[in-house]
Amino acid sequence: MKITVMTTDEQIITLEVDRNESVENLKALLEIESRVPFQQQQLLHNGKEMKNFETLSGLGVADGDLVMMVSNTSSMSSSNEVLNPDGSAVNPAAFQQQIRNNSDLMAQLFQNDPELAQLIIGNDLNKLQDVLRKRYSQRSELRWQQEEEMALLDADPFDVEAQKKIEAAIRQKGIDENWAAALEHNPEAFARVVMLYVDMEVNGVPIKAFVDSGAQSTIISKSCAERLGLLRLLDQRYKGIAHGVGQSEILGRIHVAPIKIGNNFYPCSFVVLDSPNMEFLFGLDMLRKHQCTIDLKDNVLRVGGGEVAVPFLPEKDIPRHFLDEEKQLQEASSSGTGSRGSSRAAADRSNMPTPSGGQSSGSAHAGLTHGPEFEAKIVKLVELGFSREAVIQALKFFDGNEEQAAAYLFGG
């Protein structure tokens, strides 16, 4: 249950305690929270003094009740001080040993503040002092916020600035409640999401493939293509610049090479980028061609309509440099592209190169994929039996080149 303790200096402390907790243990907890030594505390509930040997349930203390703490300052002396003004312990070793010797208090700490509990049973006194200072700082900030809220309640209702602060405080309270609800009901939202990788073989060489349904094309880096023995098949007529988060040079295209997923072989084509951050990305074009399903329930990639199922790799099996986001961001700032930028760049067909080797620009592309002429090409290809959506995608893929779009559609 939760109880609120108010001190004589108007400090408000909220504690989570057991109904059968003793008053003695409650005072030990309050010694940590309030910096008032155990011997100087006098607790009152409904005007009645709470004795050390009594229990909270025996005194009728219920969930949400208020307990008053009176500090007996007459017996205060410098030798009895437990905590410094900054919240750290005067004698950290003695403080640590005192808490260790109280099994009930340790149980409470493990339940309510496991980080502090681990430091109490550990040997790092410097870190213990740091955490005590941190807890004191947090309590001071909370106390300041509470005092400010109390002051706002008494503010002039016609004071515009005061009303703005009240509005901000109400909004922040809603945010904090939403955050607390998310921690309780959706804690995984605060964890880092590991991207989807699977084991494949490309041209007979094992590789960790990044599965990304958000990228239209399957991408391979120049260094990876060279390592796999595929760079000799590079068609440089498909040179260009891919724009995404930053930009990366498109070196060309490898039209077909065998990939092995599970025990089956599949033909695959690649866009080759001059990007150090992403070795191999299995994009939407091949996912659709080979009827793949990203099955997150069973955590597998199903290929060929389900004939093959390969598991997504756990984090421990993914190379560290694939997961080093900070390193990739640093590389992105120096090279002008990032791993996600490369994948999205391939997906941005408004910047794909023309087969003649020229580089498309945004303004040049606009004339090829809009207007009556573009609509006429759509109508002509739709009459051949393809869906309008597929036709538009193919035309944009080839910068409005009707013949290449048709060949692509027939080949798919």
Automatic annotation (TrEMBL):
Region feature (Disordered): 328-367
GO molecular function, one term: aspartic-type endopeptidase activity
Domain Ubiquitin-like stretches: 1-70
Keywords: Aspartyl protease, Cytoplasm, Hydrolase, Protease, Protein transport, Transport
Residue ranges of every copy of the UBA domain listed in the record: 372-412
SMART domains hit by this protein: UBA (SM00165), UBQ (SM00213)
Cellular localisation: Cytoplasm
GO cellular component, one term: cytoplasm
Residues covered by the Peptidase A2 domain: 207-286
One annotated GO biological process: protein transport
Similarity remark: Belongs to the DDI1 family.
Name this protein carries in UniProt: DNA damage-inducible protein 1
Source organism (scientific name): Tagetes erecta (African marigold)
